[in-house]
Amino acid sequence: VVNTFRTCCSQGYDIHSRQPERLKSDPFSSEVKPRILLMGLRRSGKSSIQKVVFHKMSPNETLFLESTNKICREDVSNSSFVSFQIWDFPGQIDFFDPTFDYEMIFRGTGALIFVIDSQDDYVEALSRLHLTVTRAYKVNPDINFEVFIHKVDGLSDDHKIEKQRDIHKRANDDLADAGLERIHLSFYLTSIYDHSIFEAFSKVVQKLIPQLPTLENLLNIFISNSGIEKAFLFDVVSKIYIATDSSPVDMQTYELCCDMIDVVIDISCIYGLTGDEAGTPYDKESMAIIHLNNTTVMYLKEVTKFLALVCFLREESFERKGLIDYNFHCFKKAIEEVFEVRLKVQRSRKLLSQRRWSKQTVPNGTQVHPH
Ligand SMILES: Nc1nc2c(ncn2[C@@H]2O[C@H](COP(=O)(O)OP(=O)(O)OP(=O)(O)O)[C@@H](O)[C@H]2O)c(=O)[nH]1
């Protein structure tokens, strides 16, 4: 796919005849969803994170959230391209409780997010983190361990860095003492009061997307052929970016992208809906151009039902809009091909397992059919 895209970008021939049909539905829909666990001590902010990122709850409203007393499972898929399950755990969960089948839970887990309240004393949180990580690793060494040093909005910049260094050192020392240096923990400074929580979640989710290197490669080719400085592939609903090119991401740029998505959705809701109930504020026609007063242009275009490409470029590069649009067209087709391949693999796997099932026969010769 990348090769096809590269040739199309540089030589500019018509790719229509070689492309698969446009994806008509969510390309991830028929897939087993990776599981993301949210764990940590009571009141560390787990439910708030979930509500703010996936339910658009305003941060101030989280003050009134009640304590979670059972595991809350939620599918993030129908309204969004990013497809996974989030399990929010109550803070007081006890691994030694025989009714808590942690082996079953960890076995199907893609990422474990452990939330530490940075405004509180974190000694207990660190020992809980150690216990959780070691247990989970024994059951499933493939889990990504992500530590959110949370509620950093109350801390100065120096203080944040200091806390992160201290928590990083202590957590890794504990693992080294237990002879488990091979366990890798990733650390993020987060707060629901700014974009840091969305950025951290983006990185967690990206690690669960197997096509990430291909997506990054496509973005690199797209920007280098179009005179673009930075490009993000965004899940519009959650404002999680699922991929970006290989240049570094700075928080301000990411925040601008989130603001642009908000503007596009808000304006479309007010002026873009035709009154028919099936209409959505985001569709094939969705695009926006914003000229900033520092000679930078922001360009947003629809890629799939759930994805948007948001680019940053200089005003002089935007003069070649025709080229950018042509390259975008190739990029979009390449993305569709990536997911078409994936869908084919999923379909053939499904077919294979169905065949295996139907071959199983009960002793009197009747076939057992899967449900
Ligand atoms: N300052 C600040 N407060 C936060 C942040 N995130 C959450 N909180 C507050 O932390 C408190 C606890 O949040 P919850 O989301 O209920 O915590 P929890 O970890 O789900 O708690 P349990 O359900 O008891 O396990 C709430 O009052 C939130 O408003 C943050 O980023 N900054």
TrEMBL record:
- The organism named in the record is Sinocyclocheilus anshuiensis
Q: Does the keyword Membrane apply?
A: yes
Among the GO molecular function terms of this UniProt record, one is: GDP binding
Functionally, this protein is described as follows:
Guanine nucleotide-binding protein that plays a crucial role in the cellular response to amino acid availability through regulation of the mTORC1 signaling cascade.
The record ties this protein, via PANTHER family, to: RAS-RELATED GTP BINDING RAG/GTR YEAST, RAS-RELATED GTP-BINDING PROTEIN D
This protein's UniProt keywords: Cytoplasm, GTP-binding, Hydrolase, Lysosome, Membrane, Nucleotide-binding, Nucleus
Q: Under what name is this protein listed? A: Ras-related GTP-binding protein
Reactions mediated catalytically:
GTP + H2O = GDP + phosphate + H(+)
Q: What InterPro entries does the record tag this protein with?
A: Gtr1_RagA (IPR006762), P-loop_NTPase (IPR027417), RagC/D (IPR039400)
Q: Which domain of life is it from?
A: Eukaryota
